[in-house]
């Protein structure tokens, strides 16, 4: 099969013909129809986790092509989506920027007929990241029909506040859009404040995001605007950027007993860890249920985090999230590193410059996700 393979020693990616993976016990082989790009995909090329050649790529959607031993509730031809950690150094699991990928059968969700693969490919990794931040780490009450046994006993109980105020910084990011949807499902009567570009205000105020207020992040006084909306302080906050001053500014809006989720470590995001309300951090990779290379070390397998991920995929199969708006790029796998990675920009959102390819200036990604089709849908 064709795949995008990282050579860590040269930090280069080439389109290479490699053997098609075989599904092991409890796994399925998926024919990849579409992939979505995440900043981590280009980061793992610039700063490789892997020590030997690996297929890169995280988010995918496709159809089940082959079943491994002991697989339940899946059949050949099923439309599914999921994510993997491409370019992982602690095992030989390949990524999904390829014609085929292998995944555990229960870490996939069923894509409805009404959703295109290129749309479904946007959901899995950032959707689970948002769910982990809100429910698994902050203790926001689960939405209806979410499998409750998935919450680990160490997860905090919900705050004892009526009609909580929730802040999502970076509301128009992929992560932010999924967080807004999940929070509104879980807290229908909460005041939800999104901090984002003013150009996205109407979009984020409408269904399914339904932010009560969108505050313009370009206004340096936006924390004052939030404090005016929530005089007692914000109860739950998710900083979907988690870089430098964003964490401290979000923190400045919090109530005394608030909870704050961040999605970078203090060292990776460049913010202090010793704040009054301690930022709660975790990695989405914990949900994969096996050791993964991360931040110069190894995240050990976490059965509780995997159980939550399985429950989230079961929830998505019954109650899909609205996919991110997409920017469909031409050229398939061959254009991912040249064009797609240029659109992603550098590893820090707040330091990204204007993307260019072959001397041509590209429109920034804003409120949308870059996707490629591997199999062109009719």
From TrEMBL:
All copies of domain Enoyl reductase (ER), residue ranges: 9-376
Transmembrane segments: none
Pfam families to which the protein is assigned, alphabetical: ADH_N, ADH_zinc_N
CDD domains: enoyl_reductase_like (cd08249)
Family annotation (SMART domains): PKS_ER
GO molecular function, one term: oxidoreductase activity, acting on NAD(P)H
Name the UniProt record assigns to this protein: GroES-like protein
